[in-house]
Amino acid sequence: MDIQQRRPTPRGGQQPQDQRFFLILLMSLGIFMLMNSMFAPAPVQEKPDDKAADIVEGPQRDAEAEPDIPADDAGTIEDDAPARAEHIALGSVDPAGAYRMLLTVNNVGGAIERVELSSDNFRDLDDRSGYLGQLALTDAEGGGALVNYVGPGTPAAEAGLQVGDIITQGIINSSASSSPASREQPIADAHDLLRLLDRARPRQTISLIGNRNGDDLSLTAKLRRQPLDLMRPEAENVRLHSPNLAEEYASVPSFFVRLKSVSGSNAAAVVEANRELLEEPWTVDQRDDEAVTLRQRLPKLGLEVVKRFTVVQTPEAERKNEAHPSYHFDISVELRNLRTESQTVAYELEGPNGMPIEGFWFANKIGRGDGSFFGDWGSFGLRDVVVRFVDDRLTQFASSTVADGDVKPMGQGRPLAFAGVDSQYFASIVIPRKANLTDVRTAEVRAELATEKLPNSDQSRWQNVTVVLESEPTILGAAESDSASVTDDYRVFAGPKLPELLQAYAAGDDPNHTLHDVLYYGWFGWAAKPMLWLLHTFNGLVGNYGIAIIMLTVCVRGAMFPISRQTAKNMVKMQELKPEIDRIAERYKEDMQKRSQAQQELFRKHNYNPAAGCLPLFIQLPIFMGLYRALAVDVELRQAPLISDAIRFCSNLAAPDMFLDWSAYMPQWMNNGVGIFGFGPYFNLLPLVTVALFLLQQKMFMPEPTNDQMRMQQQMMKYMMLFMGLMFFKVPSGLCIYFIASSLWGIAERKMLPKPTPPAGGAISPKTSPVKTPPSSNGAAKAKAAAKRAKGKKRK
């Protein structure tokens, strides 16, 4: 059995105090709701049966009543010679090449094992090890690692590595001054080479020593960043959050075919045929750099299944244009009747699985839901199922709902526009290619788990879901007749969720049925889209999205300057009036109505509006939410670094800053980001800087408490700031940059104002205010004594 490439586990402005309290409370509750929503526990599901036995209801005949094959066909249909298991490469992973992706097709099962995107704009964000290429390594006889696959455009291919080479020694050359002997490792088996590659880093070179057909072999390859696996064996995703479970986790390929029903054959024969389709090597008929034809003959059923996979090239002039519609590959499924009598056949095509779960410890994804008012508040996962039928809206099903078996089969005679799996920044969507959009070629669409259900309720967002397309039963004419075969064609979009790119893919070339609706910003899309336009514009000017966010902050705070400055003035005025407010409160302890009237008169006299401080909050809240949604949806902000992607810190503005890896010292549940104290595998610096600036503003500009109530309010606000630190710990670093820049602006803005001074005269005139406090008897006696002394001095 091939040993798949192992992935390492994740390494681990100022306002009055009452309004400020309301601001902090509202923001904290909002962040808490959005980023720490609770998910209902999912029941543990037993391991699903073998995919080969997943035969749904269909027109099957009794096994005893009818034989599998008519007697006149039994001796005429011959089986093919056994095929050799192999991997077939389509396309290339060369960033400068003509292909957007590299497809690895496994003829065992006749399906896709892996899809790697070639663009440098879309790299693996979890795996920072050096990339040599997927090699499908196995243990070589006599020791060493046997290479069974070399993908075009990989560093291995560029170095000249070939299928059949045996690697017995590897040397990582980190620098010219380092001793090769200190980095070399003997390769006794495939796992040794994988462990060596896990320690390597991009831009390092690795020397591979071994033999080729009995001759000595020595090659040197320069490693680079890991490309993004848009589809891969699910065990590699499970290893990120559950290393122990991954060791025995069974993966399945994408886009395999199984039979639904075959007239004239019993259920046991169909089950055995499905086992052969999934577990036996298919015969490779034709192949080139961008297409392959696979064939599996089923003599007991008198059928032959043929599949073709084709990738497309990108024109040279469009290779730097990510929005060019070449992020797809085509699949055709052909059924051929080998019998001398007609047969009615239906099949199922299972869709993509093993989509990325990058950022699983912090990411939150929303969806459209079922169209109800609260549809997008559900617990959507990192990989959800999307389905759209002709002249209907797009429907999205959360991974947890699919895992619980709560999604009913869909279709039943309605023409399908498209269906697939949607992740946070990428999607893989199957679009049936039909002569007419309204043709019905799919009898039913189901949302299912592709692999074993993850057992814990806190893993519900990480379930591996897929779609199953069941064909309409088709009558195949007798062998050699014109109607002896039927072919269904599918186009599979597999790429980033760029708006222009999604708009270019449509079912039946109908502009009303494009993939654009897969992109969803939520309720604050009206704020996110203009902000994205500004961010992309600023990035086009300065070439850095971190600086673009700062420029956006300057624009927002600059536009708000008259309002925020007036708010700051109100804060200063509030501090000036605080002694008078305290006197009013002392005088009217028992009469709240008179106290309120006196305060209102005081505010009117000094032109102070206590409600004005809330206005900046209501202006900035949509901006905050819009930026948060933009970072969570826009794929161009994914992998956008503040400094450089050569270092981990702030290498992705759509993720936490990941200042320090502390995963080795934390339990697995904390590294997985489970619960409010699930901080993830990294210590994040920017959230602490953000909260520290909030506390600094509070300390610098909030007046000293003059009573117990005010002291208690300020103490509560300090605790609320600490609570916000918990809520902010896993927010995107781009959002922290916005808050840091906004806080620094607010501090500078406040420093421009004069310090608060008491009202002129030290008290409010009794002619204009009824709140003058009479002097105490002790104070009156002191005043009389002072007057007598002054009078005596004048006489002298």
Write out key terms for the chains shown.
9-stranded antiparallel beta sheet, alpha+beta, cell membrane, 27 strands, Pdz3 Domain, Beta-galactosidase, Chain A, domain 5, 796 residues, 19 helices, 3 domains, PDZ_sf, transport, 6-stranded antiparallel beta sheet, single chain, Membrane protein insertase YidC
Write up what this structure looks like.
There is one protein chain. The relative contact order is 0.11. The protein is of the alpha+beta class and 796 residues long. The longest helix has 27 residues, at 561-587. It has three domains: 17-36 and 528-751, no CATH class; 51-83 and 249-520, Beta-galactosidase, Chain A, domain 5, CATH 2.70.98; 129-224, Roll (Pdz3 Domain). 31% of the residues lie in helices and 20% in strands. The strands form five sheets. A nine-stranded antiparallel beta sheet has the order 12-13-14-15-25-21-20-17-18. Strands 4, 5, 6, 7, 8 and 9 form a six-stranded antiparallel beta sheet that branches. Strands 11, 16, 19, 22, 23 and 24 form a six-stranded antiparallel beta sheet that branches. The protein is built from 19 helices and 27 strands. β13 (291-298) and β14 (303-311) form a beta hairpin. α1 packs parallel to α17 (708-728) and α16 runs parallel beside α18 (733-751).
The side-by-side strand order for the widest beta sheet comes to 12-13-14-15-25-21-20-17-18
Instruction: Please give the CATH architecture of the largest domain.
Output: Distorted Sandwich
Classify the secondary structure makeup into a structural class: alpha+beta
CATH fold label of the largest domain: Beta-galactosidase, Chain A, domain 5
Number of strands: 27
- Uncertain segments are 6-26, 31-50, 52-72, 761-781
Average pLDDT over all residues: 84
Q: In CATH, what is the class of the largest domain?
A: Mainly Beta
How many structural domains in the coordinates? 3
**Quick one: overall form?**
elongated
Strand proportion, as a percent range, falls in 15-25%
Described by strand count, sense and barrel closure, the largest sheet is:
9 strands, antiparallel
The N- to C-terminal Cα distance equals 116 Å
DSSP helical segment count: 19
What is the helix fraction of residues, given as a range? 25-40%
Radius of gyration, whole Å? 34 Å
